[in-house]
Write a structure and sequence with these properties.
Chain A is mostly helical. Chain A is 56% helix and 6% strand. In chain A, strand 6 and strand 7 form a beta hairpin. In chain B, a hairpin with a 7-residue loop joins strand 1 and strand 2. Classes of the chains: A mainly alpha, B mainly alpha. The interface between A and B is large, with 59 and 52 residues.
């Protein structure tokens, strides 16, 4: 009997103090098996929406569906099991973010290879170079990855870069699980918020990039602030919330007015505070206050060396919290801005000259345009992907507004989460960020948006088929469905094929120095083996899609223009010149209406017999043309 | 009646002196041991120049946890609620800062830097373990006791 009791207790601890089997214990392994079978069936292909068409991925989607239903069952279960929820959340993240590295042989995104090349440059040359452009100013991520490469004994981050999305997402959720415990959310809301964050983070900033690491540090700053530096709202904020709640028809509620769990002061012993069924022991504040301030500023300083935009987004949100009095001391905002500005100041001239920082100040409606606004034509997949992400973003923000209303009507504070959610919009007044400003706003808003959305959906215990219970499951299903379209919808051109990578490696390894032109910009055009922007090649603007002096219509008539451009850089005169075409370039050209498949075919057929040009390399649809030095 | 509270047991971890250990201390000792194993293994592999998947995995395990744990275990030994997320954050921040500064200072020696970081981590973890042993058993442990929340 003793053994039985002990083993029961062990199982109980493992499953969140409830050893009774649930249907989710069966559904979870089923969903994993379906996902594994589904992933095995998906074949990597540069065909647009390769991962989504019905038929090839029905099993994959079924696995996700079973997991979401299982999650819904757990969310509405009377005896809540946090350990089971954690297992489901981890599985969801692996399914959403671990599929691409399994399916695709090479990392997605052309610009990722630039990051790999910079890392390799540091590993080879041990210094930063002016040729690194803006990355030279914010080298934190590259220094870390170069250090990892050396300690891990790998020659290039290509070995592990594909897994960065999964790696970063797991860390984000780990941090958010810690952060959300400081907020006034009940347990079901907290877990639903984590699921919504994982399911709605379509931005894809989590690839092998400085912004991926930047979000880890940014969330850390918020975690420290919300756990250790929280404070009561200013009196006017309290009155304002009461007034708005009155307008919204506040209901009597037993819930607290606090937006975060209560704090303790200087007591030596923790103070237990009962919060309607949940007992929370808050964290020490005064004793570790200075430690917290120093730790926060040090983390912020590291963040400043990693990414150019993240420190300002964090400062904007932190400043908004300080204004309403929810985080103190207020001067921390000044200190943060001083660190960020002090870091930027010596390089402001270069950054402003290169990227026109001041040009976009005040142009809110111009800055709010997303990346797709730069294209006059969007293919069906790109259009679908853009629409899905728009619906997902607006939907999440809409749910956040409903969450604010719902919280206020139930006598719960909403001001803290509201300012965190909407403060990043300030960035759109200040900068365009190469038409990605609105994406960053969504990203920095998302953790708090997810909390408010969870409050809006307010999962409760009860049968899954009850309208209130089914709402959160249905919402999660819709979020994940939109995520799949948004996150993978552009893979027709975002996926770099082995042919792309091999052609790039061939050029930078074997070709003699000379000017180099691409058909379109969608190519891993970085000297991955030896580091970025070595002076071996002069990079000429792509032939189509990157503005003047490119051609507007791809046809054999563009070949003389191409030759003249290469010659103007000395190609074919003092050094050989090169022109590259690859599968991802062709997919990009078709998707954005730069050229049809027929135009590409005709043009390439003409290139094969163009005078002066010869084929230096051809494999898997990637071709390197060489303009040899003439007589 | 001087009853030993739940989750408390007697142990002889550092020498013959009896010490009373909280359950969270037991967890901390397990983490200490795991960190020491990871760091020791990685130091050995780098010293031997062995290359392979194990070294990559040990590197990531070290990079995302060990330095942070060595700091948190000393600075906030009783805070159980942040035992997972906070060391990850601190580790990443420390290693990024160290690598960046060494790059800025034109002193790029990643393996030597790792030797210092690994050695310092082991020393700090040892110090934290000793301090934990010397702490009176009845000193309160600050932990989040929201069901299911143990960091």
């Amino acid at each position: 009997m003793r053994v039985t009791n002990r083993s029961t207790r062990a199982v109980s601890n493992a499953l969140g103090r409830d050893p009774r089997p649930t249907i989710s214990d069966l559904l979870l392994p089923i969903s994993v098996v379906l996902w594994i079978v589904g992933v095995h069936r998906i074949r990597p292909s540069p065909v647009p929406l390769a991962i989504l068409p019905a038929g090839s991925v029905v099993v994959f989607l079924a696995g996700l569906g079973v997991l979401i239903v299982s999650t819904g069952l757990l969310l509405t279960r009377r005896k809540f099991s946090s350990h089971r929820m954690a297992l489901h959340l981890g599985t969801l993240i692996v399914m959403l973010y671990g599929t691409a590295p399994i399916v695709y042989p090479e990392p997605r995104f052309a610009w990722l290879y630039k990051h790999i090349a910079i890392t390799n440059y540091i590993a080879v040359h041990h210094v930063l170079s002016r040729s690194m452009d803006i990355y030279r100013i914010w080298p934190g991520f590259f220094a870390l990855t170069a250090w990892i490469d050396k300690v891990a004994g790998v020659s290039t981050p290509l070995v592990y870069a594909s897994w960065a999305e999964l790696f970063f997402e797991l860390i984000y959720v780990l941090e958010l699980a810690w952060i959300f415990r400081a907020l006034e959310l009940d347990e079901r809301e907290r877990w639903l918020a984590l699921f919504l964050f994982a399911g709605a983070n379509w931005i894809a900033q989590d690839y092998f990039s400085p912004q991926g690491l930047g979000l880890v540090l940014s969330l850390g700053v918020f975690g420290m602030a919300l756990h250790w530096l929280k404070s009561e709202p200013r009196p006017w904020v309290f009155k304002f919330e009461r007034w708005v709640a009155g307008l919204l028809g506040r209901r009597r509620s037993r819930r607290s007015d606090k937006w975060m769990l209560p704090k303790t002061t200087t007591q030596q012993h923790p103070r237990d505070t009962t919060n309607h069924g949940r007992t929370a022991v808050a964290h020490p504040v005064e004793r570790s206050r200075w430690f917290a301030i120093v730790a926060l500023l040090l983390t912020y300083g590291v963040l400043t060396s990693v990414h150019e935009l993240s420190p300002y987004a964090v400062a904007a949100q932190f400043g908004a919290l300080a204004v309403v009095g929810l985080v103190r001391p207020w001067w921390l905002v000044v200190a943060m801005l001083a660190i960020a500005a002090g870091f930027l100041a010596p390089n402001f001239g270069y950054v402003n000259h290169t990227y026109g920082l001041t040009a976009s100040i005040g142009d809110f409606f111009g800055n709010v345009q997303g990346p797709s606004s730069t294209f006059t034509h969007l293919g069906s997949e790109a259009r679908l992907s853009a629409q899905a992400t728009r619906v997902l973003s607006v939907g999440m923000w809409g749910l956040a507004v409903v969450g604010i209303v719902r919280r206020l009507r139930h006598g719960r504070s909403a001001i803290g989460l509201a300012v965190l959610t909407f403060a990043p919009l300030v960035l759109l007044v200040l900068l365009n960020y190469d038409n990605e400003g609105v994406l960053r706003v969504y990203l920095f808003s998302l953790p708090w948006t997810a909390c408010l959305a969870a409050s809006a959906l307010s999962p409760t215990a009860g049968a899954l088929w009850r309208p209130k219970a089914i709402l959160s499951t249905a919402a999660l299903a819709v979020v994940v469905a939109l995520f799949l379209v948004g996150f993978y919808g552009d893979d027709g051109f975002n996926v770099m094929t082995p042919a792309d990578v091999q052609a790039s490696t061939f050029v930078y390894t074997h070709a003699r120095p000379g000017p180099l032109m691409l058909l379109t910009q969608n190519f891993p055009d970085s000297d991955v083996p030896r580091g970025i922007y070595s002076d071996k090649f002069v990079s000429v603007n792509p032939l189509i899609g990157s503005g003047p002096p490119g051609v507007k219509r791809l046809s054999p008539a563009a070949i003389p223009f191409l030759t003249n451009e290469i010659v103007s850089y000395g190609g074919g005169v003092t050094a050989p010149g090169y022109f590259l075409v690859s599968p991802s370039m062709l997919a990009y050209a078709e998707e954005f209406g730069l050229a049809t498949a027929a135009q590409c075919h005709t043009f390439l057929a003409a290139m094969n017999r163009a005078p002066g040009w010869s084929i230096l390399y051809s494999h898997g649809g990637a071709t390197v043309y060489e303009l040899a030095v003439g007589p | 009646m001087n009853k030993v509270p739940d989750k408390v047991k007697t142990t002889f971890f550092f020498g013959p002196k009896a010490a009373v250990q909280h359950s969270s201390d037991r967890e901390a000792h397990v983490i200490d041991a795991a960190c020491a194993v990871v760091t020791g293994a990685l130091l050995s592999l780098t010293a031997l120049g062995w290359i392979g998947l194990a070294r990559v995995l040990f590197t990531f395990a070290f990079a995302v946890y060990v330095p942070g744990w060595s700091v948190i275990a000393n600075c906030m030994p009783k805070l159980r609620a942040s035992r997972t997320a906070l060391p990850v954050l601190v580790s990443v921040a420390i290693l990024t800062a160290a690598a960046t500064v060494s790059l800025w200072l034109h002193a790029w020696h990643p393996l030597q830097l790792f030797d210092v970081e690994g050695g310092a981590s082991i020393v700090l973890i040892g110090v934290a373990a000793i301090r934990r042993e010397k702490r009176p058993y009845d000193e309160p442990h600050l932990r989040n006791v929201v069901p299911g929340d143990d960091g």
